[in-house]
Amino acid sequence: MIAIIDYDAGNIRSVEKALKSLGQDTSVTRDRDVILKADKVILPGVGAFGDAMDKLRKYGLESVIHEVAEAGTPFLGICLGLQLLFERSDETPGIEGLGILRGEILRIPGGGGLKIPHIGWNSLAYPNKGRLFQGIPEESYVYFVHSYYLKAADESIVTAAAEYGTCIHASVEQGNVFACQFHPEKSSEVGLKILENFVGLENI
Q: Which CATH architecture has domain 2-199?
């Protein structure tokens, strides 16, 4: 069973729908025991960094997420879920993230005719080989919706990158923890393959 963490963020149901299309049993939940017993855990979300961290703490989910990460259970952050895994964000200075991964979330620089937020399809480059991208050619297109981007402290964990006014660290992998800034659940066949690769992971 795949637990999808419910913390009142947007876009949770579209992730659930995509997983069900792959034949997966899912539970949208904030129940600690259900999350800890799950085979896989996903932290999706669309929204503001500070508000999301407040909700995770309000529902007692911060410590649960750390337990999942430490237990070796495959964990996937999507969009805001990626950003929350890191230490801090320009969106809400002074609010600490989960700090499971090292790095910061920066505002996408304006200028050059680029629209912010970044909404649309961008191709991916693979700076390091990642398990989520097995069977997916480099330069495949995925769908982004965001105004802030990840700059990971350790670039060896970056498995996919995209260009949009700057180099966006679009996906990371460290042990059992994975994350995508883009939305695999909205990225057509490529996105479903990424989710399928995640579903097929073993515990670490």
A: 3-Layer(aba) Sandwich (3.40)
